What we know:
Layout: H1 18-34, E1 46-48, E2 51-53, E3 72-74, E4 82-83, E5 96-98, E6 106-107, E7 120-122, E8 130-131, E9 144-146, E10 154-155, E11 168-170, H2 182-185, E12 194-196, E13 204-206, H3 207-210, E14 219-221, E15 229-232, E16 242-244, E17 255-258, E18 269-271, H4 281-286, E19 293-295, H5 304-312, E20 319-321, E21 329-330, E22 343-345, E23 353-354, E24 367-369, E25 390-392, E26 414-416, E27 438-440, E28 462-464, E29 472-473, E30 486-488, E31 496-497, E32 510-512, E33 535-537, E34 564-566, E35 591-593, E36 615-617, E37 639-641, H6 653-656, E38 663-665, H7 676-680, E39 687-689, E40 694-696, H8 702-710, E41 715-717, E42 723-726, H9 747-771, H10 773-792, E43 801-806, H11 812-826, E44 831-832, H12 834-837, H13 844-853, E45 855-862, H14 864-868, H15 870-886, E46 891-895, H16 908-916, E47 920-921, H17 922-925, H18 929-941
Parallel strand pairs: 2-3, 3-5, 4-6, 5-7, 7-9, 8-10, 9-11, 11-12, 12-14, 13-15, 14-16, 15-17, 16-18, 18-19, 19-20, 20-22, 21-23, 22-24, 24-25, 25-26, 26-27, 27-28, 28-30, 29-31, 30-32, 32-33, 33-34, 34-35, 35-36, 36-37, 37-38, 38-39, 39-41, 40-42, 43-44, 43-45, 45-46, 46-47
Antiparallel strand pairs: 1-2
Helix pairs in contact: 10-15, 13-15
Amino acid sequence: MGPGVNKEKMKPRGGSKCYILSVTLLLWNINRLVIPVEGFSLRSCRISYNNAICTKSKLTAVPQDIPPTVQGLDLSANQLIKIQSSDFKHLSLLTQLDLNRNRISKIDTGAFANLISLKKLNLNNNKLDKLVDNLFDGLRNLMELRINNNHINSVGSATFTSLRSLRFLDISCNKLRSITKFNYTLQYLPNLRVLSIKRNDLTVFNSWQLTNRSLPLTSLDLSQNSIAAFRITADVFPNLTWFNMGASFKKHKMIWDVRNETFLSQVSTLDISGLHLPDDIKAFLGSFSSLTSLRMNGMKRNRLPALINISCTIPSVTTLQLRSNNLTFVDSDMFQLCINVTELDLTSTYITNIQDEAFRSIRGLRILSLSRNRIASVPAATRNIPTLSELDLSTNLIASLGCHDFANLTKLRQLNLYNNKISALQECLFKDLIGLQVLKLQNNQISILNGAFKKYLPNLRRLHLNENKLTAIEYGDFQGLKSLQNLSLHQNQIQSIKKGSFIGLTSLTDIQLQNNEIKQEEIKTCFNVLTNLRRLELRDNHIKYKDSSALPNPPFSQLSLLETLAIPAQHYRGRSQLPRNFLQGLTNLLVFNIRNIQLLYLHKDMFNYTPRLQTLDISSNELKDLSPDLFSPIGSLKSLYISRTNLQSLDFFIEANLTNLEFLQARKNMYSVISEEVIKSLPALIYMDFQGNSFTCDCDNAWFLQWTQNNTNTQVFDAYNFGCNYPPDYKDTKLLDLNINSCSVSIDFIYFVSITSIILLFMVASFTCHFLRWQLVYAYYYFLALLFDTKHRNKQAPYQYDAFISYNNHDEPWVIRELLPKLEGEQGWRLCLHHRDFEPGRPIIDNITNGIYGSRKTICVISRRYLESEWCSREIQAASFRLFDEKKDVLILVFLEEIPTFQLSPFYRMRKMLKRRTYLSWPRAGEHTELFWKKLCQALKSGEDHGEDRFRLTVVDRP
């Protein structure tokens, strides 16, 4: 996050795709709520082959975003100080943990308790000063523990209690002064095979201090301690085969007390390098009756010739290592008694001269190393050793080689002559080396081969001529090497490769020609004879084509078995192209590398000849754009490197059909938006690297941001360091710090709005039903009236009834005894009564509507029970709607009982009508009922009045 930037205010500016993104992100958020996941976009680490690599990240605490599925975790070279009990709580599948090179001084008890699968733990190079009890609880499957180079001065008696499977323990380079504590700890390690306690502060070694029982150890390293006395009083090491106690820092001779010669009788490899041996050397070495390999490097305070002779009297000794001694001259007496030695190592012994007969007595010598000395020529002493299979003369001062230097070495398999000053070879040089398989001549000054490989070396398989001064390869220079498989010619000055230069190399599978000065003219036909070639390295040469026109003779047309072809350059001048048929014939090519050759264009037919291609590196070119058609023939591609190619967009992936692509490196390009379509077009992608790109921090990248943080299938390397370049306000900020809430509709917000709306709707409905019930009923009937009026407006049919009588069932006696006889019996009016005239089986509301609209008038017989009746209310409402709709005098109100005005308040519509019109009252008629019936008949006879809402009937006025 850049200085002065408020993360909460980092809301993106909406792009043209914001609305679409909001819908997409809504669906994604729903899925996220259902299935919680952890992504692979780690802040300080990367995942490689199921290993989390967090090395050199300046970490001060263990990252908590490590996926729980990793099996390896490398936290080396950081700044960790303390390991807490919760640091590895979720990593139960971890098998390897590397905490090397940190500053750890404290580890909480139980910190490793959940690492039940751990097999290797590295705590080297930290600052631990003690190992407390139960420190390694839970590590029941641990097999290898390294704690060297700390400050450990004490070990708890129950430190290793849980490590029942431990086989390797290295506690070297600490400050242990005594091995007494191990007496308690080693008894809990029944499977321990290798123990290293070298370079501590031990001054004595007494077997009873280490253990009181036999140990299963096969290897013990006590070297580089200041042990003044070594005592073994019991058979505690019955299985020990490798023992190192060399390089003591004591100036005085060590006290050697092994009570029984059988106690160390199984040791086959002994290292006493630099040790100040006791006086009785023969008795000392006699304790190792099964000794086969003896290392006596740097024996400065001992008489080396005498020591060699005594050592060689042990019949079983076959390997003698004498490195870093000061021999200078090797005479014939030095190894006179070493008749059983088969391997002799004299590396770094300052030898300048070797007597011709020096190795004659070593009749079975197979391996001889004279490396890192001051030998000026191949010594005659190395000739005529019929058993010699490996000779190492590397890193000396040898300037020239003669025809007899390797005479009669017919069984020699490997010859090392690298790091000398050899300038030329001779044709006869290797004439006797018929069995040679490996020849290392690199890093010399060889400028000419002189036919050294034209006739001889029929069994040579590997030839190293790299880092010399060869300028040309001539016809048939290697034609005698019919078994050669690997040829290294890199880092020379080769400019010319003549036609037929590689003739005879019928078995060659790997040739390295990188870092030379080869031009495209030199490779036209020279490789066509290498029909078994699998790998061809042409990096850092001067291969350059001007256009993409097809070549008449493609340079690799006969290399149908080639699997790897590399032609990148480090310092390439000028723009170039590749011929469209450059890869013709390479039907089995798997890896193609053309990094940094300043390509401007790749023809769409380039890969038509390579259907099996799996890895393509076209980084550091100036392609700017790639056609989807380019990738059509290589649907099997798994790894693609397109860094620093000035790409403006990755949209070509959408149509490229790279469904098998697993690895994508696309660093430092010009694109700033990664679309959803691009990612979805690469369904098999496991790892992508967009490091060094500058992204647009707006809604266009919202989907990519969310996907980066939450997907579990693809690791986006270094995602938390992706920077923004647009808008200008977001410069120096990080993409993953972007607040994209404005780009998406959160599912939580939708839930909130939906639930709130439902609650509000319920409250409004409740309020309406309680307070506005009659207004709703009015609206309902008004709507029905409109429908009925529209339906019947153009019909001229006569009315069916003179009056529709609206009354409550409790008032039916009055209607039957009083109203019906007067109006229908005496006056002859035809009345519509619901109990008599409604059509059976028809909906009530339809009967009511038809009755009202089928009558000239509607008489409402009103009482308190009438007002309380739902159906009566509907009838008067329907009559009111007709009154308002047709604007006709159709409504007659008859009150059967006195009802005060305040009791009419809930019936708002009726109260309003009573205030604006007159009505008939039966109780007020009293004994003068004739006037009541006369007025009622008058109302029934009255014509239509188009005045709004008026009733011209005067019997009683109501205030």
